[in-house]
Each structure stands twice: as structure tokens, then as C-alpha cells.
Hints:
Blueprint: H1 5-16, H2 20-46, H3 59-93, H4 99-103, H5 112-132, H6 136-146, H7 150-159, H8 168-177, H9 181-210, H10 217-262
Helix pairs in contact: 1-10, 2-3, 2-10, 3-5, 3-10, 5-6, 5-7, 7-8, 9-10
Amino acid sequence: MEINRKELRQTARKQLKGNWLWVIGLLIIPGIVNLFLEYITNYVWTGSFNTNNLSLVSWWQGLGWSIFTIITGLIATMIAWGVQYATLAFRDTGEKPNIFKAMFSSFTNGYFSKTFLTSLLTTLFTFFWGLLLIIPGIIGIIKRFSYAMTPYIMKDMIDSKHEMTATEAISESRKIMKGNKTTLFIIWLSFNIWYFIITLIGIVIAFLYLKPFNKPLADLIFQALIAYLIAIILITIINFILSLYLQPYYRQTVANFYRTLVGDKYLKKEEN
């Protein structure tokens, strides 16, 4: 099936019109919750909000930190899937539950056990495929796009009361993405290339600011540090602001990509 990328983006913009506050909240609030969990884990086990003290703590504190990091990582993954569930529901019905109900939707309404197992397996499969093969980075990216439709398929299957195995949604994602991974990659690239462009512009401006040819070495080093700090701060701020537009827009486009690709295939009730 041929996917019209331009049409997917146009449809996403129409769906987001008048709903930007909700979708931006669905981006920011989960991010804040995940950062809070990460900082609390670090502080409880290392006495610091970052991992700088990790090498100084006892073995049991290090073990505790590792276990809690895995737990918070799983919670973050569940929240991410909940956001994708809410995005697909919004795409299909226009439903906009409050942000916390949306982001924790994978924990409720019969979603939890199936989402937990499938999201865990998806993460493990992607990770181990990346380790086992010759070019792990490239293979990891390919598998990421191969499994990208798993959360959406999972939601449709649960909503249709389909009795599924832990790997069924993953297998179905691989099937429907066969021949469609390149299309999704191009969609992803069309959004994320802006971060690269902004970063590149910041680096060029920093180099232009240096003007090294007539500067003493000490002045040049100081000026380079200032230019570096200014560039990092500006790039971070601009990319964050850009994310408030690009990430909800991309998420909505991917939900449209999925529904265009499968229609109501996984929403059909099972016949007894």
C-alpha cells in the first residue's frame, strides 16, 4: 500500500488545530515525571541527583541503584506506551482525557499486564538484535522501525477483546512494516533533521564568533569556552522550543500512518 506522507502530515496538522495545549502537556508532563523518577533514584542510592557519586557508593547501594533504574526505566516505557495509546484514541475519536489519565492509560482498563510484557519484550528484542549483529547501531534502528507499530496494534487488540500472546503484537508489527520501514524512516527524518540543522547552525555561529587569526592563545581559549557555552545554551533552548511543535506533530503523523496502513484490521471482534 502506497502511503502519501504529505497527506499524513496535513491530516495531523488539522487534527492538532485547537488541541496544542493538550498534546504539549502530553509531551511535557511525562517528561517531568520520568526526570523526577530518575533524580529520586539517583539521590536515594548515591546521595546525588546525578550519577557522579556512583563509583563511591557501596556495592549494595550500587545494586539498589541498578535495580531501581531498571524499574523506573520500565515505568517510563509504560508511560510512553500510554501516551501512544492516548494519541491513537485521540486520532480515532477526538477523545482528550486529562493528561495524567492519558499518560497512565497503559496501567488501567486491562492494559497493564499485556502492555508490560510486550513492551519489555520489544525493548529486549531491539537491544539484543543490536548486540548480536555486525553493525549494531544500524540493526537497532531497523528493528526499532520494524517494531514501531507494536503499541498501536496492542491497543487495538485489547480494545477488540482479542486474546493475544505476549509476542503477537510484535510479530504483527514486523509483518505490516515489511516494505514500509523506509516510509516511516523518511517521516521520522523529516521531523528530526531540524534538530541537526539547528545544532549545525549553532556550531557555525560559534566558530564565526571565535575569529582566531589575530588573537593570543589565552584569549582564544577563553573566547572558545564562552562561544561553546553560548552555543550549547542556545541550541538547547531552541531545540526544546522546537520539540514542543515537532514531537506532538510527529506522534500524530505516526498514528495516522498506522491507521492508514491497517485500517480497522485489529479492531474487529473475534468470532466465537
